[in-house]
TrEMBL record:
Domain Flagellar basal-body/hook protein C-terminal per the UniProt entry, residue ranges: 633-670
Annotated localization: Bacterial flagellum; Secreted
Domain of life of the source: Bacteria
Entry keywords, A to Z: Bacterial flagellum, Cell projection, Cilium, Flagellum, Secreted
Main location: other
SUPFAM superfamilies named in the record: Phase 1 flagellin
Protein name as it appears in the record: Flagellar hook-associated protein 1
Domain Flagellar hook-associated protein 1 D2-like: 341-428
Encoding gene (name): flgK
Family membership: Belongs to the flagella basal body rod proteins family.
Length: 673
């Protein structure tokens, strides 16, 4: 009877615990990260009798947590990957909408500007048409400014979001370290504190939404967490801290530092996964290149338009004024160079654009070792050749070329020698879209006329014809109109034997047929005429001139109806003037303004489409990993309800065993009364 009573009591005790575990599961069905628990029973040690071993009841040996480290790791990694992609996607979709929008992008303003030039070229003396060109130029500059400002606002948002995310990372890292300590203490009795383990696992999962982590289990049941390429975030009960601070090279670009004890390490480029990794990846892959590509386009537009205007004459016969502001003014040149905060010298370099057509979309790093300068292109890490690498005196102008000898399109003026170890970040194009502005206020100063014109003598007997001369080389930009006027007029008198002279019998200095040879009647014969001072004009003579026929090249005085330079301005729309490779000869390289912007929009659009696909894929992977974990660890209310009924019956049956033992004991006692 005593044995039967103990057996029944053991069943009651085990069943009571099983009911408590089931109730715990049910009440935590909505608790994030909770893993279903089960009570594990085993039979007690039986006692021996003459008839054999007799069972002595049951005992509770463990409260088991339904958890798989493999499935938990899958959820963590999938969470980190999905959060990375979603953070990247949310940012790049905004950028794509901005650049490709019909009202927010650059393309509509570019088209309006060149359309206004086309209208003005049809009637070069029409002041309202010229005024429209000024208005559209101002609109184009403002559109560049606005797009830059919007992108800069996004850069500011990323800086703020990085700060907010690192605060969350630090909070969770501290919580995980505390859980490690509590779990190590609670587990010292040989049993696992299931609820603490679940809480820590959920904290790590939440941490994975902000940053990718590597989890390494320890013998005392604590977990060490590492980020980046192995930097410790949590070790046992101690946690490190992430801090966001202005970058050493660019204070507008925040960087992430890992602070552990008294040491500080920059880890920005090492981080991946989670929202923080997605923001950093977006900034390096899309935002920085967009800043630079947009700036390069703005520089090319202002440079090419200003240069072409400087090769023509306005309504007053003066050399054309610049339509856009000077991008090489002193302030702009200084802003393109950022000294590292670790510098000890006082050098203040300035970066001037020398050739906007060959600029890349990369930033550069310039270093000084005390004697020599070295430079590296950051987009691909290529080392550059500097000339000179060791200036003998200051101020010194440094030029840059890559291994193939390609000029990088800019030069740096060092006002003084830096200190040994000083570094500088060179950003030739980053601010181009923010600084472009339309500065021309007088419509009559638009140079739509070419500086030279040609004509045939009315007394010519043959049918020879001469085209209007085109200025193919200029000694200065803008041109020296006085020097060109001084070299003209230039007569061309045909001698009937394939040569033009002025006066008859005297060869014309600087006149060259292309290709060399005598004039061929009945064909188009191309000529160049060197006017001196680096100014060269080209023209063609065709037909069959008679001996003594003459032509004249003269300065284009009062050429108010001339639109030849305006047509050249219009041709800039499709001329390959962006990203030209100067090392390639004989083949046109580079792209036009429209194609250059189109390439930027296409690249961002491709990245956006890829981000959307990645978002769908990583979302599906995360759902699958979560479902797999929940299938094992999640609470099923139907199952738990069935367990309640089962354990209730079990409890009643165990109580009945005790009742039987009591009845037997009472019967035995009554027998001896």
């Amino acid at each position: 009877m005593a044995d039967l009573l103990n057996i029944g009591l053991s069943g009651l005790s085990a069943n009571k615990t099983a009911l408590a575990v089931t109730g715990h599961n049910i009440t935590n069905v909505n608790t994030p990260g909770f893993s279903r628990q089960d009570s594990v029973q085993a039979t007690r040690v039986p006692s021996f009798s003459g008839a054999g071993y007799i069972g002595s009841g049951t005992t509770l040996v463990d409260i088991r947590r339904s958890y798989s480290e493999f499935l938990g790791t899958q959820v963590r990694s999938s969470t980190a990957l999905n959060s990375d992609v979603q953070a990247y996607r949310s940012q790049i979709e905004q950028l794509d909408s901005l650049l490709a929008g019909s009202t927010t992008g650059i393309t509509p303003s570019l088209q309006k500007f060149f359309t206004s030039l086309q209208t003005a070229a049809e009637d070069p003396s029409n002041i309202p048409a010229r005024q429209l060109v000024l208005s559209e130029a101002e609109g184009l500059a403002r559109r560049f400014n606005t797009v830059y400002n919007r992108i800069d606002e996004q850069n500011g948002f990323i800086n703020k979001q990085m700060t907010a995310v690192t605060d969350q990372v630090n909070r969770l890292a501290g919580s995980i370290a505390s859980y490690n300590d509590a779990i190590a203490i609670a587990g010292s009795n040989g049993q696992q504190p299931n609820d603490l383990l679940d809480a820590r696992e959920e904290a790590i999962r939440q941490l994975s939404t902000f940053i990718g982590v590597t989890v390494v289990p320890q013998d005392d049941s604590s977990l060490n967490l590492f980020i980046g390429s192995g930097q410790p975030l949590v070790v046992g009960s101690a946690s490190s801290r992430l801090e966001v601070a202005p970058g050493q090279s660019d204070p507008n670009r925040l960087e992430v530092n890992l602070v552990a004890g008294g040491s500080r390490q920059g880890v920005t480029s090492m981080l991946s996964g989670g929202e923080l990794g997605g923001l950093i990846r977006y900034r390096s892959e899309a935002l920085d290149t967009t800043f630079n590509a947009l700036g390069r386009l703005a520089l090319a537009v202002s440079d090419q338009v200003n240069t072409q205007l400087g090769q023509g004459l306005d309504l007053k016969g003066q050399v054309g004024a610049a339509l856009f502001g000077d991008f090489n003014d002193a302030n702009a040149a200084i802003l393109r160079v950022k000294a590292f905060t670790t510098n000890t010298g006082n050098a203040q370099p300035a970066l001037n654009i020398s050739d906007s057509s060959v600029l890349t979309t990369s930033d550069y790093r310039l270093e000084f070792d005390g004697t020599n300068y070295t430079a590296r292109r950051l987009s691909d890490g290529a080392a550059l050749t500097l000339t000179p690498s060791a200036p003998g005196s200051y101020p010194a102008t440094l030029t840059f070329a890559d291994a193939a000898g390609r000029d990088q399109g800019f030069e740096v003026v060092m006002d003084a020698a830096p200190a040994t170890g000083d570094k500088f970040l060179l950003q030739p194009t980053r601010l181009g879209a923010s600084s472009i502005s339309a500065v021309l206020a007088q419509a009559d100063q638009l140079a739509f006329a070419a500086p030279a014109r040609a004509g045939a003598s009315l007394q010519n007997r043959g049918n020879g014809a001469i085209t209007q001369p085109e200025l193919t080389a200029a000694g200065a930009s803008p041109i020296d109109a006085a020097a060109i006027a001084a070299a003209l007029p230039q007569g061309l008198t045909y001698d009937g034997a394939g040569t033009f002279e002025d006066p008859p019998g005297t060869a014309i200095a600087g006149l060259t047929r292309v290709p060399a040879g005598a004039f061929v009647p009945g064909q188009v014969n191309a000529y160049t005429l060197d006017l001196g001072g680096g100014n060269v004009v080209s023209f063609s003579i065709s037909g069959r001139p008679e001996s003594g026929d003459s032509f004249t090249l003269e300065f284009n005085t009062n050429g108010v109806s001339d639109n030849r330079n305006a047509l050249k301005l219009i041709n800039l729309q499709n001329k390959q003037t962006v990203g030209v490779d100067p090392s390639v000869t004989g083949i046109a390289t580079g792209v036009s303004f429209t194609d250059g912007y189109g390439d930027l929009v296409e690249r961002v659009g491709t990245l956006t489409a890829q981000a959307r696909q990645d978002g769908e894929a990583t979302g599906a992977i995360l759902k699958q990993a979560t479902d797999n974990r929940d299938a094992l660890s999640g609470v099923n209310l139907d199952e738990e309800a069935a367990n309640l009924i089962k354990f209730e019956q079990y409890y009643n049956a165990s109580a009945q065993v005790i009742q039987v033992a009591r009845s037997l004991f009472d019967t035995l006692i009554n027998t001896f009364r």
